[in-house]
């Protein structure tokens, strides 16, 4: 997160930007009168008398340099919590839960409680730091039509996702998948699936073709084998529209490997 972004965030605490600036100023032993007053009004700092010259003593500088990083962490955590709570309240109105860019490493159980009387139609958990999605999420949010899990660190998704009867769009792009998540192809009414920019090499084409309602699949920017690439390109677009990136040639490629453009004659 950029410092300029922190400045724009609303908070009941003193500006996180000022804490950052003050911390670095303290390390350099150069602090303004206004900044010193600001620090001494923060509740976590002892109410030490402000020197008349507004110069910090060495022991005060050491103390603040030790305490301020902790305060910065608490302030940032508090802002993240505030953001989640506010977005949950918004979701009660529009039924779209947007928890993107909330610095989440796991799904907060408190969200289930906050949303207990709301039937959500979409859930956006993109741009966080999830390594896994809890199985209870699809159980609690059973009515969602769209689920965005892009830009996380996922390599698997829970089997319970197949029970999302209303889910039509699933975004798993920019994650750490090394193989196709089989459960994604069992979701009964899923029409759009993005696995763009993962680490998938091989594709079980039979699983793809067996997806009951899938109409569009994005497999761009994956290190697919030539065989998987050809098999995906061979699927008729009127049955399934597949977006796929041509594999980059490597030293061990066969000399006679040629990929024909769509609708071209061999």
TrEMBL record:
GO terms for cellular component: cytoplasm. Keywords: Leucine-rich repeat, Repeat. InterPro entries: Leu-rich_rpt (IPR001611), Leu-rich_rpt_typical-subtyp (IPR003591), LRR_dom_sf (IPR032675), LRR_domain-containing (IPR050216). PROSITE patterns: LRR. It comes from the Eukaryota. Pfam families: LRR_8. Gene3D superfamilies: Ribonuclease Inhibitor (3.80.10.10). Residues 246-266 are annotated as: Disordered. This is Leucine-rich repeat-containing protein 20.
